[in-house]
Predict the 3D structure of the following.
Amino acid sequence: MAGNDRPPFLGVERSVSGRVWRARLRPQEEVQASAIAQLHGHGDLLSRVLAGRGITQETAATFLAPTLRELMPDPLVLQEMDAAVERLARAVEASEQIALFGDYDVDGAASSALFAEFLEAAGCPRPFLHIPDRILEGYGPNVEAIADLRARGANLLVTLDCGTTSHAALASARASGLDVIVVDHHQAPELLPEAIVVNPNRADDLSGLGHLCAAGVAFMTLAALARELRRRGHWTDARPQPDLLAGLDLVALATIADVARLHGLNRAFVAKGLAVMRGRARIGLSALLDAARVDGPPRAYHLGFVLGPRINAGGRIGDAALGARLLTLRDPIEAARIAAELDRLNVERQALEKATLEEAEAEADRQMMRSNRLSCLVVAGEGWHPGIVGIVASRLKDKFKIPAFVIAKTGEVCSGSGRGSSGVDLGRTVRMAVDEGLLQKGGGHAMAAGVTLARDRIDSFRAFMNDALDDDVARARDADALLVDGALTARGASVDFIRGLERAGPFGAGNPEPLFVFPDQRIVDSAVVGSSHVRARLQSGDGARLDAIAFRAVGTPIGDALLDGRGRLLHVAARLGANVFRGSERVETRIADLARPDRETW
């Protein structure tokens, strides 16, 4: 939060985008930064980055080198984990036919792949895997799919990244003779379905692991299962225990793609998972990296913005099972084919998103004009593809700085997705809307949620969300300062400097990527690249030059300032990364905001 003890950074009280800039470090954190630098020998800027994220001299070593050994608790701390493991162990020993029902997003695909690989390695028949069609079946288990899995011979159903709110569907499963285990992380109602539910966000779970994505919960379940099978003497020379750590690439992918908070155990999952992924042992992920033209080692950025969207593209506008299938493939030719198809679907998804976003932004502008202080956008449109409403909601949230829901009107019953902002628990509020009878279905977590509702309840839902989120969003608005980690020169933005900063990563939700200000940069040149980005060449007073890009900035105050400001001076707030291009590593500077120096008039 921004506080009065944080004066405006470089005196910027109103940037080009209308935000105040403040130093991330408070006075007491400046002391911590100095202590970290002295005790551990880290550079000044890295120490400031650590202190600004609540790290102390006592916790710095663990933060910079997170390990599963130190950060992963006994999986049995999760409520009902013991019952889930006992039932799974019996199924493995008896070679039962297990059915896996996963969600259609990255987290569901990764969780399903983790389970499928482990169960096969443990000697089970190949599990039946069902990923529902987003449009025809909707989110979560459904009666028809479960009946089919039962008819094919399954006698144990495991739902992954779904199931916590699926009372009717899971009751039908139990009635048909299926045992059910739910492995999930979404917000849970007080009354749980008729199943063994392993979910750190159920009300009676005291594990403190509510920040895990479903793949993280799945990994802990399989770790407990491997231990139980070892206790039972299941592993032999002929059937060795699978290498669980080899699946951390999937856990890392899901953690980043699901925007899970990167603290504690999640940091270890992502750090170790990226190391696994760099070995490119998983044929499907290697094929997808090639299809996406990723040079060099994958980083957290690639998981969230390159791999994640392509895997999701199957569930959004194509075959929902493509992602999960790709992640378990052993045939490189088939993997290359599916990776190419997902890459193609992603391009198609981008075109659909662009058209829908234009309509959604126009409707959002109309709502903003009618009200001076909206707390939540709820826009709906005819013909919008249900598979892309979540992405469009994310774009609206970024542009208007408030939570946003985008609803596809596809009949009398409509579906939509919402994206939340810092300080707002969207999943909890959606569950309140379900309890109020405004939604037929709804759930999610703090930053994202899905809803199903009657067409004639959209206006009521909009009114409810604006009222329910008013206080939270007001507090978030008051705290909406751009927090700056420090000032940097163009010459200082080197690959070696970025390598040092990456020690504080991986960055993402809960561990924000460092933000630096380059003061008094002259705009030498600027131009539109692609359909919506602005690239600029900047020059500091000593002649050093810096190439930078502002993503999706065309038509925004930041884009206009760059395109109209050639020859002018600007303070540039940016995040830094390193990219490999044609075998050469170079700095990538991503502009987050701009400010005019006090002495500069436009």
